Amino acid sequence: xxxxxxxxxxxxxxxxxxxxxxxxxxxxxxxxxxxxxxxxxxxxxxxxxxxxxxxxxxxxxxxxxxxxxxxxxxxxxxxxxxxxxxxxxxxxxxxxxxxxxxxxxxxxxxxxxxxxxxxxxxxxxxxxxxxxxxxxxxxxxxxxxxxxxxxxxxxxxxxxxxxxxxxxxxxxxxxxxxxxxxxxxxxxxxxxxxxxxxxxxxxxxxxxxxxxxxxxxxxxxxxxxxxxxxxxxxxxxxxxxxxxxx
Length: 246
Prior knowledge:
mainly alpha
C-alpha cells in the first residue's frame, strides 16, 4: 500500500517535470526560433514586434496545454516567485528548475540543428545578441545600455511579470483567462525591453541559447540569473502582502 502510494506520487511528479521540460523547450524554440529564423528575413521578416508576439504566444499556448499538469512555469524565476508568494513548495524548486534548464537546452539544440542545416551556415554569428542571446554593454539595436540599465530592466520586467502571473492565477481572478493575461504580459515585456537586453526574464531561456553562442554570452549570463530571480522573489513577497485572503 505504501509502495503504491509512493509510486503514484513519483509518477505524478515525473509528469509535472516532463511538462515543464516540454513547455520550456517550446518557449525557447518558439520565441528564440522566431528571433533567429524569422525576424530579419528581407521584405517579409517579422521584426521585433513579431518576436515579442512569438514569446507571448509560446507562453500562452504552453500555459493552456500544460498548465493543468505542472502549473506552466517554464521559467526558474517564475517557480521562485511562486514559492515566495506561497503558491509553490520549496521541495519542488530544484527538480522544476532542472527540468526547465534541460528543456530550454533541448529547445536551443533543436534550433541549432535547424540553423546549421542551412547551406550558408558558418556558425551562429558573432557579437552579442547572436542566436537570440541576452546582453548588456552591447550596441545591438543602435543604443548601448550598460549593466545598471540591464539589471534594472530585468528586475522590474520580471517583477511585473510575476505580479501578473500571481494576480491572473489567484483564486479570486476570472477563471480561464490566466494564460491569456500572462502571454500578453510577456509580449509587452518584450516590446519594452528587447532593445535593452534582448529580454530574458527567464534564466533557463538565457542559458539555453548561451550554450550554443560565443563566450561573451556565457560571461554575461550571471545577470540573467540574478536579476530575474531578484525581481521574481520581490514580486512574490509583495503580492503575498497585497493579495486578499478570501
